[in-house]
Design goal:
By secondary structure, this protein is α/β, with parallel strands linked by helices. Helices cover 34% and strands 15% of the residues.
Length: 384
């Protein structure tokens, strides 16, 4: 191990005896009390020293090995310590070369090191992303951008499903490029995903599904439903989701409808409210709801959707971030909830989705997990 104070966390001395790691209240932590000798040792935790050299330098400062071990343990518990040698044998503390496969993800690794407290938490989550497989349903302004962000963030395989050809109003920065207009959406999205991957990679050959195979392909970690017609994300139809509920496949809805963006819910089958739960709950409150749904779903969608570029980009970014948080092992705020924002005020609002007791998904028969949101003040960790 080559101990290193996480460089992504800014440091500031609060007083002569304590140091705050991190400027934002969500991730800041205060370490103390720290004497002059401990302060000198903190300056040596830059990832260039292995444990033997670090012990020798600590002894030169008059510190016992046991004291050093205790200090490192408390710094690790506080979430401010990383292992510079993790994933890079023989190159601890070295700057990555341009051809290093991790180099395009260094900013992501830094972010993950802040969000997760373990010394090797960032690298482990990047490795987990590489093993993940995500299916994005929709290659419009929202879906294509989501797929590109997931691929660029290190997700090992991102499949995009859609039909038809790219239209001029579906082009977007970070999404389908102007030269894709007229091309088949699925093929254009496939190229976008390959081009967005860290370091770029040639497009993979698609595997054709064999007759009789089910709707869930092996290794599918998450489905992101981001249809070009935002109605299917804003008021999702339970029928397409039946296979995901049966196979236990997590799925997240995202889209734009009539200048309103929506992210969520993230459905964990059997644990949180699904599309049918939402439909049944709305029907309980509005008896005419099924009649209205039938008219909306059976009528032709507008040829050109009301999908503002800035709004679509914001929705795609938030949805991709929620998907990545889920793949990293967290429960993002869209778990069992829907976040909605509308032009022109762009004020995000949240609706908690309640499992319906009559829904066959089974979530209503258990206890739905509550998501607590808020900003925590920096907490104190004693060291030294």
């Amino acid at each position: 191990m080559h101990p290193m104070l996480k460089p992504a966390l800014r440091r500031a001395w609060r007083d002569l005896r304590s140091v705050q790691f991190g400027a934002t209240s969500a991730h800041a932590v205060v370490v103390g009390p720290i004497d002059t000798t401990t302060g000198s040792l903190l300056g040596l935790l830059d990832g260039t020293r292995g444990m033997e050299l670090l012990r020798a330098e600590a002894r030169a400062l008059g510190l016992r090995d046991e004291w050093l071990d205790e200090l490192l343990g408390r710094l690790a518990e506080a979430g401010v310590l990383a292992d510079a040698s993790a994933g890079r044998p023989g190159r601890a503390g070295a700057v990555a070369s341009p051809d290093d496969p991790l180099d395009p993800l260094r900013a992501d690794l830094a972010s993950l090191s802040v969000a997760h407290r373990e010394p090797d938490g960032a690298l482990r989550r990047v490795e987990a992303r590489r093993a993940a497989r995500v299916q994005v349903r929709g290659a419009g302004r929202v879906g294509a951008a989501i797929a590109a962000v997931l691929s660029a963030s290190g997700v090992g395989r991102v499949d995009v499903l859609d039909s038809g050809s790219v239209r001029p109003w579906e082009v977007a920065p970070g999404g389908l490029p102007a030269e894709a207009v007229g091309d088949r959406r699925a093929a254009a999205a496939h190229r976008l995903v390959a081009r967005s991957a860290p370091g770029g990679r040639p497009p993979r050959e698609r595997r054709r599904r064999l007759p009789g195979e089910g709707g869930r392909e092996p290794g599918l970690s998450l489905v992101v439903v981001a249809p070009r017609d935002g109605l299917a994300a804003y008021l999702p139809d339970p029928l397409p989701a039946e296979g995901w509920i049966t196979t236990g496949t997590p799925h997240l809805y995202a889209g734009v409808l009539e200048a309103t963006g929506v992210v969520g819910p993230l459905v964990l089958p059997g644990g949180t409210a699904c599309a049918r739960c939402a439909q049944e709950e709305r029907t309980d409150r509005l008896p005419m709801w099924p009649r209205m749904l039938a008219q909306w779903r059976s009528g032709p969608p507008p040829e050109v959707p009301a999908c503002d570029l800035g709004l679509a980009t914001a929705v795609a970014g938030l949805a991709a971030a929620h998907a990545l948080a889920f793949l990293d092992g967290a429960s993002p705020a869209s778990t069992g909830a829907r976040w909605e924002v509308s032009l022109p005020l762009l004020e995000w609002r949240v609706e908690r989705m309640r499992p319906h007791p009559a829904c066959p998904c089974g979530a209503g028969r258990g206890r739905e997990g509550e998501h607590a949101s808020g900003v925590a003040a920096p907490h104190d960790t004693m060291a030294g």
